[in-house]
Write a structure and sequence with these properties.
Radius of gyration: 18 Å
Structural class: alpha/beta
Strand order of the largest sheet: 8-7-6-9-11-10
CATH class of the largest domain: Alpha Beta
CATH architecture of the largest domain: 3-Layer(aba) Sandwich
Order of helices and strands: EHHEHEEEHEEEEHEEHEHEHEHH
Shape: globular
Largest sheet: 6 strands, mixed
Distance between the termini: 23 Å
Helix content: 25-40%
Number of helices: 10
């Protein structure tokens, strides 16, 4: 029997309007009340996850979330860090050089703010991130030397991200993953959602066999393979559907909730309580 549910956010739990549907919300609130651990596992910073954690009532003292694609695992109620991996400015210099050489655009993401390198032109990343994260327009030389960096991102049209992904394969010491068709993320070594979930499950003392993980994109692959049940959304890319144990409805059709209702045999009356 499942004891934990790990959920990617964009295009998985969130619909096309970037909202949690009423059905998804009510089912997850119900399972949370019943003691099933609901773990948001996203590339997003914590500040942009918090409103959704509040909406789902995932706010207990020991509730955990996974941010930055596994780069930060922390308690929801306070600033207790279970696991954190960051990059230094020196470590991302090869990324800066690659972007400069190829004409891409770059944003540097710290825990509480984003440094947007306007020397390459403004990227579209700010349109993807809610207003909880302040953006600072700057140049690479002005980024604080000792800033702990959770990730750097290249945002743009899918064709540009295809090119950026190919070019980034030269960054052998870093983790490169695509979290959307329009977003490439460069992370510290060995950072991924699977390793973030390992830390979360170790904290809860829950074996991975009792975990279901839901996702749709390249950066969800390792956690779906790791989980006892890997669930691909109906709108997932083909590679994710291929490795998943099951494919459910899309993010606009309450795919998460409908699977959980069936698995846990939840009655409509119970959900509304």
């Amino acid at each position: 029997m499942l004891k934990a549910i790990a959920l990617d956010m964009d295009n998985t739990l969130l619909n096309s309007n970037k909202e949690i549907s009423v059905t998804n919300r009510d089912v997850l609130r119900y399972l949370n009340r019943k003691g099933i651990r609901v773990i948001l596992c996203s590339g997003r910073p914590f500040a942009t996850l918090k409103p959704f954690l509040d909406e789902l009532h995932v706010t207990k003292n020991d509730d955990v979330c996974v941010c930055f694609n596994g780069g930060l695992v922390r308690l929801v109620r306070d600033h207790t860090v279970i696991k954190a991996n960051t990059l230094s400015k020196e470590q991302i210099k090869p990324v800066y050089d690659l972007v400069k050489e190829n004409g891409f655009k770059l944003d540097i993401v710290a825990e509480d703010e984003v440094y947007s390198l306007t020397e390459f032109g403004k990227s579209s990343y700010q349109t993807m991130i809610p207003k909880q994260m302040p953006f600072i327009d700057t140049t690479f030389s002005k980024v604080p030397a000792k800033l702990p960096i959770f990730k750097v991102v290249v945002a743009g049209e899918p064709a540009m991200i295809d090119a950026a992904s190919d070019a980034a394969q030269s960054l052998k010491q870093l983790t490169v993953t695509r979290s959307r068709r329009t977003l490439l993320e460069i992370l510290p070594p060995n950072v991924n959602k699977m390793n973030g979930l390992k830390a979360a499950l170790n904290f809860y003392r829950i074996p991975r066999e009792q975990l279901a993980a839901f996702g749709d994109e390249e950066n969800d692959k390792d956690m779906l393979e790791y989980a006892g049940i890997g669930v691909a959304m109906g709108n997932a890319i083909p590679e994710i559907k291929q490795i998943a144990d099951i494919t459910v409805g899309s993010n606009d059709d309450d795919g998460v909730a409908n699977y959980l209702i069936d698995y846990f045999q939840i009655s409509p009356t119970a959900i509304r309580l």
